[in-house]
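Box 3.1. Reading complex inputs
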Amino acid sequence: MLNIKNLHATVGGRHILQGLNLQVGEGEVHAIMGPNGSGKSTLAHVLAGRDGYEVTGEVTYEGRDLLAMLPEERATGGVFLAFQYPVEIPGVGNLYFLRTALNAIRKQRGLDEFDAMDFLEFAKAQMKLVEMDPSFMNRSVNEGFSGGEKKRNEIFQMAVLEPKLAILDETDSGLDIDALRIVASGVNALRRKDRAMLVITHYQRLLDYIEPDHVHVLANGRIVQSGDKNLGRQLEAQGYTGLNVPVTAG
Amino acid sequence: MGAMDTRGQTFVQRLSCVPESNGGLTAFRRAALEWVSEHGFPTTRDEAWKYTQVSPILDIPFTPAQQGMDLGLSPGWIDQHAGRLGGVRLVFINGFFAKGLSSFEDIPQGAKITNLASVEGSFSQSLKDQPNAFTALNTALARDGAFIQIPKNVVLETPIHLVFVSGTESEPTMSHPRSLVVAEAGSTATVVETHLGAATGTGRYLSNAVMDVALGEGAVVTHIYVQNEAETAFHLSHLGIRPGAGSRVTTHSVALGGRIARQEVKVMFNAPGAQAVLNGLYMPMNKQHIDNPTAIEHIAPQCESRTLYKGVIGGQGVGIFDGRVVVHPGAIGTDSSQANKNLLLSDTAQANTRPRLEILADDVKCAHGATVGQLDDQAIFYLRSRGVPVQVARDILTLAFADEMLNLIPMTALRSHVRERAMLRMRAEAQEVIG
Ligand SMILES: Nc1ncnc2c1ncn2[C@@H]1O[C@H](COP(=O)(O)OP(=O)(O)OP(=O)(O)O)[C@@H](O)[C@H]1O
Ligand SMILES: [Mg+2]
């Protein structure tokens, strides 16, 4: 469903992605690991359509040219990015924001829009999945949320928006031990045959909960090694220096 | 201001003669007109008019608006365009009282709410002062306006709504609504002032409005001003406030319309322990120019003033906040803050901000600040990444910025009405960007 060929991305004079190749089949879960600054978030941003990058290469998503689509078209087409650093939006209510988003997606799928009451019921049910307190719905988007609360909010949004391709960028970072378990089981509950996931993480711990079908190492803007779930454990034991590939920081 | 040049003289002559007044006011009116010829019109060399040129106004051959125009108005139209707030509503068309469109429901006991033409004498005090040439012209040429007197200790539960509708079907016309609010000691009242262009005939007109508000000891007044004139129109207004000892006044100014608009708020703290809160939102779009001068004179001790104005500026719009706070000698214990925040929606939008502070007394607490920014790209991307179309994302963020001010407006019906008007202005801007 996702096919990335020879992807390059440059920003601020830095050539960050340098010929990245990756294929994700329907319903597959792929983990991406890699040193700080290797380009993992850049990949996530480029896939979600953030501007400011000079991008070359080819990305097809469900047979469509993903790079030619606007960010909102990608989202309504089923792509979802759980941000490494979710953005605070003062003055915009969480509930209103998410209902607007869901209705944009539902419209695209030919479904009826949710009114405020119906949406509230639906949203409350999804919040249970990540054990989020309904009071968060009345607050501004991410404003004043703790690091962990922001991450839960991302997964909650994913539950509401029901994407076909979810990219989770370090959703486990900043979570306490219990929260990690809750968020991971939330993600597991959202795992479906027709929902692929790209899970960016630094820790095997998350992968113990979410067993990936494939694990890749991203270094210097490229996938330098791929394997099954055992690759994660191997990395945990040996670090990136244990790999037989040149890895330079930053 | 200097002696009047010929352009100014022609401008004044076209506006014809001073109306005959009862109660010996003709003398005030004549004096005001003389003041204009002596001092002339302001230029951008006058500090208070630094950002607004009056020459485009003086170049237009305005003649006095005539009484009896109907401009396609009906009570339903007023409800829709000015909001239906319940309670007393006085409607003025081109500065003339329109009884048929007004409603006098629920006038509280003892309160006097009427139009100026019937009680001119009450205005004598307020007619004496001449802050500038346009207010002086208003004094000389005003035909009508509202007069509101709230007796001692009376609390008004419903707002008093003044609606000033202007329009012209052919020639450019000018009108000068003049209003006075007297809130006696211990009274409480809310006054809503709406200025808007008519259903038909939204050509070039100039509405030159003056309102004076006098608060007795301990009175509490909330003043809400909504300026939604036609985009072809010119609008000048002056709100002069005199708070009595221990009184509290809150003003909400929302300026949306007009080709060139300037709405000044002036507070004279002559009595101790009073408080004034000045809130403002202005949204010039397209080629609009909207100037918001505030002048707060701390003369008496222990008074508090809080000013917060926000500008949302799109297209080639120009938005101005020109705030001046003067703490006079002896105004000890003054507590004043002034803030102005601007959001530019386009590369051609322009914000001028000048919070000024002159402190001539000791033992005072004063703060001021100003910001000019743009929509947060990261927030726009975050919304888009969730499926929200880019223009909707921009609108949501713009409204969130404006909401800080809109949410302060009391009364749900009015707040949602004003919010809707603000959204319509934003949409007009969005169309401009897309088309
Ligand atoms: N706008 C930019 N201008 C210049 N350099 C940038 C810009 N954005 C990212 N970079 C650089 O590109 C590199 C890759 O960044 P990226 O965020 O993709 O790394 P990452 O793999 O997600 O790292 P981490 O594990 O720390 O999250 C970093 O060195 C970063 O500093
Ligand atoms: Mg990252």
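In summary: Residues 52-375 of chain B form one domain.
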